[in-house]
Amino acid sequence: xxxxxxxxxxxxxxxxxxxxxxxxxxxxxxxxxxxxxxxxxxxxxxxxxxxxxxxxxxxxxxxxxxxxxxxxxxxxxxxxxxxxxxxxxxxxxxxxxxxxxxxxxxxxxxxxxxxxxxxxxxxxxxxxxxxxxxxxxxxxxxxxxxxxxxxxxxxxxxxxxxxxxxxxxxxxxxxxxxxxxxxxxxxxxxxxxxxxxxxxxxxxxxxxxxxxxxxxxxxxxxxxxxxxxxxxxxxxxxxxxxxxxxxxxxxxxxxxxxxxxxxxxxxxxxxxxxxxxxxxxxxxxxxxxxxxxxxxxxxxxxxxxxxxxxxxxxxxxxxxxxxxxxxxxxxxxxxxxxxxxxxxxxxxxxxxxxxxxxxxxxxxxxxxxxxxxxxxxxxxxxxxxxxxxxxxxxxxxxxxxxxxxxxxxxxxxxxxxxxxxxxxxxxxxxxxxxxxxxxxxxxxxxxxxxxxxxxxxxxxxxxxxxxxxxxxxxxxxxxxxxxxxxxxxxxxxxxxxxxxxxxxxxxxxxxxxxxxxxxxxxxxxxxxxxxxxxxxxxxxxxxxxxxxxxxxxxxxxxxxxxxxxxxxxxxxxxxxxxxxxxxxxxxxxxxxxxxxxxxxxxxxxxxxxxxxxxxxxxxxxxxxxxxxxxxxxxxxxxxxxxxxxxxxxxxxxxxxxxxxxxxxxxxxxxxxxxxxxx
Length: 678
Known about the structure:
Layout (H helix, E strand, L loop, with lengths): L1 H9 L1 H20 L21 E2 L4 E4 L2 H13 L2 E6 L1 H21 L4 H18 L13 E6 L2 E5 L7 H14 L5 H11 L4 E3 L1 H13 L4 E5 L4 E3 L7 H18 L4 H27 L1 H4 L2 H24 L11 H9 L2 H15 L6 H18 L6 H27 L7 H14 L2 H12 L4 H7 L5 H9 L1 H20 L4 H10 L27 H21 L4 H9 L7 H10 L18 H16 L7 H17 L10 H18 L9
Parallel strand pairs: 3-4
Antiparallel strand pairs: 1-8, 2-7, 3-6, 4-5
Helix pairs in contact: 2-10, 2-12, 4-5, 4-7, 6-7, 10-14, 12-14, 13-14, 14-15, 15-16, 16-17, 20-21, 21-22, 21-26, 21-28, 22-24, 22-26, 23-24, 23-25, 26-27, 26-28, 27-28
């Protein structure tokens, strides 16, 4: 049991990778839409590539979303408005008119027959005006129904009466009636008129929903065994609708019973294969990243983020899947790693999504082309304009690609979904969030981007200003080394920005005791003259340890601290070692060696060469081109013989190129001309 635990502990890095792999596969498959995959690929306007297709089952032909929306729109535009007839308001009005008449009868001398005639006339006119009712607001719909005594009665627009129209009708009716006191009665009725038809929103919406619910989502049936399409036949509009209906029926029925487990197994195998390809690529071509679990986690996190976002969009808003800014993935990975890895991961992610998105060929084509454009155009993201230019080109590729596919499928420019152009533009705007995402990922995963390196390279930063104040000679030396190292890195296509930042900070440990380093000694007094060689060597060596401590206190990234740790490797403090030998032949060499480690990348190797050459060049008197050439060769050869570059992935050819740049730069510094042979 104990031996097993020991093995697990020894291989914990590998165990973590297995765990990450299994969790990633499980999460991706979990978020996949629950449905089978139709085994035929087809596109409108393209020939049917397979054998004659006969209906494998009875199924209904589904209406397209556009057809359903058109029917719904037609029902809404022709909906019936319902109004409630309020009979109590009519009764109240009649009572008011009768009370007014009684007041008139008491104050004026009317015979009983006149009184009866006026009462009869008022009742008849009120009944005539309110036969359909008086509207509070006139209906705008062509179809109107009045609910009166729990009975729905449709009325035509010619019968509509507003309050003003009702008053006019009263006047017209009185013109046909000849009774004494008619003018007085007309005035009373007009003043008492009230609207009694009110819009019933609840009943109207209920009736509308009832009509909408009756819409059929199918239009016709296809019987089992019926020929759907023959081999080589062009998939026309009607064929496309039938095939799409069969596909929907097939996928919905397939994800049932025992089929569920086979489909799940198929998804797991395919996703597992894709992610295995990623591991193999990293193991073979990016072993440094493969060994770093933090970086592996970062890559898988970004893949999962894009896959989950897209699958959720497919489930809920299928028509807007291009709104997911998939090109953020290669943009971020190129920023933190390199273009080749960024494109490889992007392609694998698109292949995973190809299982679940509609029109998978179109989607894969557009996303891969957009990813390639991202890789080719996105460079130096710390320059703000570059990101906007790259995003503009990505958006243009989406728009042009969609336009081309539409032209192929439809054969014309009709029925273009203009809203998709808005989706592509929104995709581009969302891609701009790569910048804040890069900042977040730096903080979460401890990675360093070019944007952060640019900020660190600012010589007005707090730490570099402190170095300039406390150790001005060291600061000047660091600037010179940064220039040499940056030029060398550009020559061999290493990360020039990283090398420059590493060079600027590599000697910050000298701030602790600046006068013990010759470049900071203003007077001829050397504090080492009063110290034993062993103690002097310790002070010199300690600037590496002190530098690491200062860097950590100031939250410098680990990639920058690596330059502080490795810029002397495990070399010897030769001057004080020799002085100690003069005093005592029995000297432990380890006491005079830097703690290391030795450089483990091209960038750290370049800094070691540049630092040693620049520091030693101060001792050159009357340098010539030949002297500089021999001087650089001697220093680099000494470092190679001390096995300082064994772990750095730098070739002999690249070392020769670095030496050539260093010689040229020193020649320029000392204003020398190249000596031509006679």
